Amino acid sequence: MEIKVELTKHPKQKPDMNHLGFGNYYTDHMFEMDYTEGIGWHDARIVPYHSLEMDPASMVLHYGQSTFEGLKAYRGQDGTIRLFRPEKNMERLNISNQRLVIPQFDAEFGVEAIKKLVSIDRDWIPEGEGTSLYIRPFIIATDVHVGVHPSKTYKFMIILSPVGSYYKEGINPVRIYVEDEYCRAVRGGMGFTKTAGNYAASLIAQETAEERGYTQVLWLDGVSKTYVEEVGTMNIMFVIDGEVITPELNGSILSGITRRSALELLKDKGYKVTERKISIQEVFDAAKAGRLNEVFGTGTAAVISPVGELMWEGETVIINNGQIGPISHLVYDTITGIQSGKLKDPYGWVTVID
Ligand code: COI
Questions:
Q1: What separation in Å is there between the alpha carbon of 73 and the centre of ligand 1?
Q2: Secondary-structure breakdown of the chain: helix, strand, coil percentages, each rounded to the nearest 5
Q3: Measured CA distances, 278 to 148, 227, 237, 248, 273 (Å)
Q4: Contact residues for 344 (Cβ-Cβ < 8 A; gap 6+)
Q5: pLDDT digits (tens), the chain, 354 positions
Q6: From the alpha carbon of 300, which atom of ligand 1 is closest?
Q7: pTM of this prediction?
Q8: CA-CA distance, 154 to 326, in Å (whole number)?
Q9: Helices (H), 191-256
């Protein structure tokens, strides 16, 4: 499918690229494409960034039939622009779509759309250490109808936001609150997808955690509140006696692309890496016995985020004296090094934008 391009006549003023924060600014253009039952996806176009006019009865506003992705474009010191495993994001968007009864799209075409949009807005990609252009593809149900059934029309959009680090802590360890009242997702639900409702479900616990001085919430399984799942904005890894352990994908955990990359590279570097069920009790027992060496989160927005403290049912453990540990450091340096082009890409993870 051809992507039509209409360039803006009113370029925006760019923000101070040294103080971006996360998700505060959007670029000059966006990608749009529509779906109509019987026709399929059509009218792919890059147009000036604009507000949407929507009927108040649009289905997405009522029943949350929507999916999204998050990936980044990086500008290396050599000026080259790189994407990190964009095909994996497009594959995962289709996996989310399948669960949300949203029509499949051509994943390769999705990557082409991202490349073209990023190329047009390339002047918005910041250069500083830890900065990037966050890419947010998303799909919404647009039928004007308040009956509950899958929509027959959809809109696929991609917007871009120059960003700094997601957490104010940057690469410094975050404090995490283990949630023991609410749950984020259960097996058979939508936990493995990127859909708006999963994030809505997390807000109440997130708010309470923040009030108590914690950065994020660690979710336990929704049935027994025994096993560790994920943080919501990132997957989680524990280093116990030198072995890297992360919860296995079980249907209620997001299959993170940074998670997968961290596991692949740690295996490649000779570490023992295990995906299995891990209880929060086991984590706390290991911490108390001095065997919990490191904890870190992995995510596109969060990158690699060391965890310095965990709090569960009123009890606190401090990890690695609240410092970033060597394995977290290695994963951070390797992944960000490949993304920025400072390091060679032996795994073929990078897509260069001409
Ligand atoms: C991401 O890491 O890209 C995410 O989607 C997490 C969050 C910002 C929703």
A1: 14
A2: 25, 30, 45
A3: 38, 6, 10, 9, 13
A4: 338
A5: 999 999 999 999 999 999 999 999 999 999 999 999 999 999 999 999 999 999 999 999 999 999 999 999 999 988 999 999 999 999 999 999 999 999 999 999 999 999 999 999 999 999 988 899 999 999 999 999 999 999 999 999 999 999 998 877 778 899 999 999 999 999 999 999 999 999 999 999 999 999 999 999 999 999 999 999 999 899 999 999 999 999 999 999 999 999 999 999 999 999 999 999 999 999 999 999 999 999 999 999 889 999 999 999 999 999 999 999 999 999 999 999 999 999 999 999 999 998
A6: 2
A7: 0.96
A8: 46
A9: 196-211
- Strand ranges (DSSP E) for 8-167? 29-36, 40-48, 66-68, 71-75, 81-84, 132-141, 153-163
Residue to substitute in 233, 255, 335 for testing ligand 1 pocket (most ligand atoms within 8 angstroms of CB): 233
Instruction: Name residues contacting ligand 1 (CB within 6 A).
Output: 70, 199, 233, 299-301
Residues 138 and 195: their CA atoms lie apart, in Å, by 9
Q: 74: which strand partners?
A: 82
Give the C-alpha separation, 280 to 227, whole Å: 6
d(CA 220, CA 88): 26
Residue indicated by tokens 């116990």: 240
Nearest in space to 191 (alpha carbons), one of 251, 257, 101: 251
